[in-house]
Amino acid sequence: MKILLDHTQLNITLQRLAHQLIENHVSFTDTAIIGIQPRGVWFSNRIAGIIKDITGYKHIDYGKLDITFYRDDVHTSGNIQVPSQTDVPFSIEGRNVILIDDVLHTGRTIRAAMDALVDFGRPSNVELMVLIDRRFSREVPIQPDYTGQTIDSIMTQKVKVYWAEKDNKDEVVLIDQ
Amino acid sequence: MSLSVKHLLGIKELTAQDIEQIFQTADNFKQVLQRPIKKVPTLRDTTIANVFFENSTRTRISFELAERRLGADVVNFAASGSSVSKGETLVDTVNNILAMKVDMVVMRHSASGAPWFLAENIDARIINAGDGINEHPTQALLDAYSIRERLGSIKGRRICIIGDIMHSRVALSNIYCLNKLGAEVMVAGPPTLIPKHIEGLGVRVEYDIKKALLWCEVANVLRIQLERQHKPLFSTLREYAIYYGINKQTLDSLGKEIVIMHPGPINRGVELNSDVANSKQSIILDQVENGVAIRMAVIYLFSGKVGIDE
Question: In A, which residues are within 8 Å of B23 by CB distance?
């Protein structure tokens, strides 16, 4: 097991990513943030919170998207997946949408997320933020716009992200199996 | 995650956890149905045959809508005008349909137990859409789901099923379902329409409709099924309406507000008066709306291909 980001590093990275979003989107009036269920939401909760802290905005459009029904492996992965909640309480028509997930691996989740997204409207553009980018393991041509850390890993390894809210610690580790 | 059974034949075979899982999944589909695009591509690799050997409007449309909104391909089969009238057996009919590469069969049949027979003899997922006077599992699920939505919970609630209990598959499935979820269940109606020894299923029996309504929080009123009554069980519909029909006056005299349900189709003026069916207390149309979400959940959860996950 190897620690990719410890508590301090993770929080510095979160601050940087939030600042990058503010730099590019300034007022957030035409921008909406959408976290991907289930694990991306812990990450997007933090990012949305930090953006509000830094800018002082009382409200930014922030939603959660479940992509279970859009997966391309419904009947090939063995068990049927139990969906999580989808909550997109605003229009994404003509807006900038930032999709947020914790780990980018094969890219198939993000492909499904884009399918799910267009069922809610036609965004003017879509960006992708990930905490960990496992480059060289992509199965579809999808790349992030904002990256916490890029790592080289092999298929049998696993990236595990711990959040203080549910795991009592902030930490990202790479596990050999 | 997985359900404890491979086919949805009856509520009797489900566990409380299975039912809870179906409800949670239905919550998600209910949310999908509020979107501008009420459709997901989840089952685009699945073909479903709706095989209806008995008339149905609501259930068949509800199933078909659920299937299409999950992105599945759908074929419809009705017994009238088919080779069944030429003497083809049930297994042959369904095997012929399956030979056209169908993954799941939704079946309604007038013979109790027909879906069990089919599940043993063919290689596809079976969803029971009503078999004779035995079970109608998706109706019971959507009824319980609608009660949960209206009252917040089912455990400990007092629910009365009123009317033709004897000929009702809705009643039997509801009794199993509500008991498993921890509700108190009563059946009420004329003695000729209530099976002997039904107390064995863990329900109370009441022959006085007023007493039943005073006891319950939810009244699920069933249709008088004249097509299944082969001998006279009460003298006239007018007499039934006088003694067992529910009208606004009866409801107002209770001194409390109870929830009114009906699985449809309603015989207006017989078991329910229009002023009751159209009142705020009635959740009859919510039941129909929830039916699509519940059937989407059932089809999704039971859609695993035979052979892949076994």
Answer: none
- Bond preceding residue A38 cis, omega within 30 of 0: yes
Reported as a single tens digit per residue, the pLDDT across A44-88 is 999 999 999 999 999 999 999 999 999 888 777 667 778 888 889
The per-residue b/e assignment along A125-139, b for 16 or more CB within 10 angstroms, e otherwise, is: ebbbbbbbbbeebbe
**How far is Cα B265 from Cα B223, in angstroms, rounded to an integer?**
7
B157 & B261 share domain: yes
C-beta atoms of A69 and B309 within 8 A: no
> Is there a single domain that holds both residue B163 and residue B191?
yes
**Could A74 and B40 be called an inter-chain contact, meaning their C-beta atoms sit closer than 8 Å?**
no
Q: Quick one: closest CA in A to B42, which residue? A: A69
Judge: A69–B42 Cβ closer than 8 Å, yes or no.
Answer: yes
Query: Which secondary-structure segment (H or E) carries B258?
Result: none
Interface test with A, best of B17, B31, B46 (most A CBs within 10 A): B31
**Phi, psi angles (nearest 5°) of residue B278:** -95, 5
| Residue at token pair 């030979």 | B99
CB < 8 Å & 24+ apart, contacts of A149-153: A149/A4, A149/A5, A149/A13, A151/A4
pTM of the shown model: 0.88
Q: Does the residue B309 lie in any domain?
A: no
Tens of pLDDT, residue by residue over A110-123, are 999 999 999 899 99
With a threshold of 0.85, tell me whether the complex ipTM lies above it.
Answer: no
In this structure, are residues A172 and A4 in contact, taking their beta carbons and an 8 Å threshold?
yes
Partner-chain contact A120 B35, CB within 8 Å:
yes
One DSSP character per residue, B172-210 reads HHHHHHHHHTT-EEEEES-GGGS-TTGGGGS-EEES-HH
Same domain, B144 and B261: yes
Of the candidates A143, A154, A146, A151, the one whose C-alpha atom is nearest the C-alpha of residue A172 is A151
Whether residue B190 is preceded by a cis peptide bond, meaning omega within 30 degrees of 0, is no
- Give the distance from residue B88's alpha carbon to the nearest chain A alpha carbon, in angstroms: 33
B306 inside domain: no
Kindly list the structural domains of chain A, giving each domain's residue range(s) and its CATH number in brackets, ordered by start: 2-74+86-175 (3.40.50.2020)
Domain presence at residue B194: yes
A94 touches chain B (CB under 8 A): no
Containing domain of residue B143, as a range?
137-285
